[in-house]
Design a protein that fits this description.
alpha+beta, about 50% strand, globular
Amino acid sequence: MRNIFMTTMVFFLGAAIVANAAESLAGSIKTVQGNCSVRRGTETIAATAGFHLLERDVLTTGSDGHVGAIMHDGTRLSLGPNTELSIDKFVYNPSDGKFALLLKLGRGMLAYVSGKIASFSPEAVKVQTPVGLIGLRGTKFVVGLDLPGGSL
């Protein structure tokens, strides 16, 4: 009886860990050209197609870099050369009515096409830059920053 109890506890603990990991998934990289990386905490990882993005990841492109990513809600992001973009907050939980997308553009160029978060809650989508905050009023936009020393 004790073995059954322990096996059941291990199973539910493992399921909870997997569910928590799935909730933190923000999106994935679809295309990469040139020098591109993802900074996750103190680790820097080469960006590759299929790489899973998490909340708080920072995407960086070099002078020859381009990255295309799709977020879990269908939001599409395209980064040009010399770009630094942080996924500061990503919440997509339609069953609970919870939505949030906060991107921080430190430098470079971002093309954005909205997904379901913007459909359900346009005020929940924001792009912060060193010179201002972009609130969503449509479905797509392009923003470029050329700031000396611009960084997240």
